[in-house]
Design brief:
Nucleotidyltransferase, domain 5, globular, binds adenosine-5'-triphosphate, binds ligand AH0
């Protein structure tokens, strides 16, 4: 536009005017530095978000209370272009003190509020210390880590279908304060992922669908990602890439009732290793039917649950109802194993109905239970193959920790993902709250 000015005097006037305005703006900025500067923490986040790849440590502490899964991930890109390299992974086992303390409040409708309040920072600090120890062991400089992604410890999960308070909707509570992790490690921590899902109308779980869709979907194969932790869940990923058919749901018990039974009757044992006890028993079909009749299995997908429902009290009620209280421990464990196998198989078969050559990729501690895996194969003749997520480059025990690293990466550098469908699909939300180290 300057070129269009043929009056040279006017051109000089404009130049002087522009110069003065610029100077005035600069002076104003000096007087109010907050107008141009940003907090160093925000600047660091901004710089991290701009990088082509980030180092993020994913932390998952599941309902089995076995340990803290720590996955150091190099994540390149974001959204559908996410690439992940798991550089290190370890499960830092919890000692008896942790388990005893958490069990005072875990999945309990009544507990000591003082203990719960104290546990929140205590768990966060402990998780932070565990991360510090991992970084020392791996010889990694904490300053090189962009963020920690912390799931926390689920204490109570309460979707609307599982409570009778008509004036409330869904709720879920994870403890292990991210501020404690950030202060203990000096690393910015993204945590408390589930609350946004609830705020946006979801049940707060499963969140697996986000990571599964971004990282495990393939145009070459119809896939079901199956995780068998305390609770089992699945994500359906059609090869069409049609995001509107992608969905995720909890299925029911994976290991949770079996673990609770073993821990109650076999002191010092955490689970039925190699399903040795269950293999020595016989399935009681009457008890199996009573357990399978649970209202949760009749709910439409997607749905979520937890040990608040699938616990020893449920088993005892079913045994009383069917007069099977005198069964041997082996028979009860064989029956509980069959409950997990048949309900998981039913969900897989429903999901794969009408889908050609569906392949299941399994993860979670349940893959180490040979009886459960054997039964799944028998009950799912139409599934093309059962593999585990190792075949997709992610160690099956690390998968959930990696998932939360992906969610933190999306929080920092992601794009909007949205694909709603009848089964919930993928809500268009950014999850996680950011805690700075100071
Ligand atoms: N060798 C084994 N034999 C039998 N079962 C095993 C074996 N190893 C692990 N498990 C089972 O896997 C469980 C741990 O699984 P995982 O760590 O995936 O659960 P989680 O992440 O705590 O649960 P969730 O995903 O529901 O929060 C153990 O408690 C046990 O029941
Ligand atoms: C409330 C809660 O912690 N739920 C867990 C639990 O463990 C498995 C299943 O129940 C799943 O819904 C969820 O975790 C995974 C990581 C998820 O949200 O996808």
């Amino acid at each position: 536009s300057f070129k269009r000015l043929n009056n040279e005097k006017q051109f000089i006037k404009i130049k002087v005017y522009t110069g003065i305005t610029l100077l005035k703006t600069l002076l104003k900025c000096k007087k109010h530095p907050d107008r141009v500067s940003m907090h160093p923490h925000i600047e660091a986040l901004y710089n991290s978000a701009k990088k082509p790849s980030r180092l993020i440590i994913g932390l998952m502490s599941g309902t089995s209370l076995d340990g803290l899964d720590v996955a150091l991930c190099k994540i390149t890109g974001a959204g559908l272009h996410t690439q992940i390299e798991v550089l290190n992974f370890i499960t830092v086992e919890y000692n008896d003190e942790y388990k005893t303390k958490i069990k005072q409040v875990f999945a309990k409708r009544e507990c000591d509020l003082e203990v719960l309040t104290l546990l929140h920072p205590w768990v966060g600090k402990l998780h932070g210390a565990m991360v510090n120890q991992c970084l020392i062991t791996w010889g990694i400089d904490p300053a090189s880590i962009d963020a920690i992604a912390s799931h926390g410890q689920t204490i109570y999960h309460c979707p609307q279908s599982q409570h009778n308070h008509h004036d409330f909707k869904h709720g879920t509570l994870q403890i292990g304060d991210s501020d404690q992790i950030a202060v203990t490690t000096g690393i910015t921590t993204v945590g408390d992922f589930r609350q946004k899902h609830i705020a946006a109308g979801g049940e707060g779980a499963p969140l697996a669908v986000y990571g599964d869709y971004l990282f495990f979907a393939s145009p070459d194969e119809n896939r079901i990602l199956l995780n068998m932790g305390g609770i089992a869940n699945l994500t359906f990923l059609p090869k069409s890439g049609d995001a509107s058919s992608v969905f995720s749901s909890d299925i029911g018990p994976g290991n949770t009732i079996m673990d609770a039974y073993v821990q109650y009757y076999f002191k010092g044992m955490h689970y039925d290793e190699g399903a040795k006890l269950a293999k020595a028993g016989k399935v009681n079909v009457i008890l199996l039917k009573a357990l399978s009749d649970n209202a949760f299995f009749k709910l439409p997908l997607p749905k979520t649950t937890g040990p608040e429902v699938f616990n020893l009290a449920l088993l005892r009620a079913a045994q009383a109802q069917t007069a099977t209280q005198d069964l041997s421990h082996e028979d009860v464990l064989a029956t509980l194993n069959a409950l997990s196998a048949t309900t998981i198989a039913r969900a897989l078969n429903d999901c794969a109905k009408g889908v050609q050559n569906c392949v299941v990729y399994a993860s979670g501690g349940g893959i180490h239970n040979p009886l459960l895996m054997e039964q799944l194969l028998i009950h799912c003749p139409n599934i093309k193959a059962f593999k585990n997520t190792d075949d997709l480059g992610v160690h099956p025990d690390a998968k959930e920790a990696v998932l939360f690293a992906i969610l933190a990466n999306e929080c920092l550098a992601g794009q909007r993902q949205s694909a709603k469908n009848k089964r919930g699909g993928i809500l268009d939300i950014t999850m996680g709250k950011v805690s700075f180290a100071d």
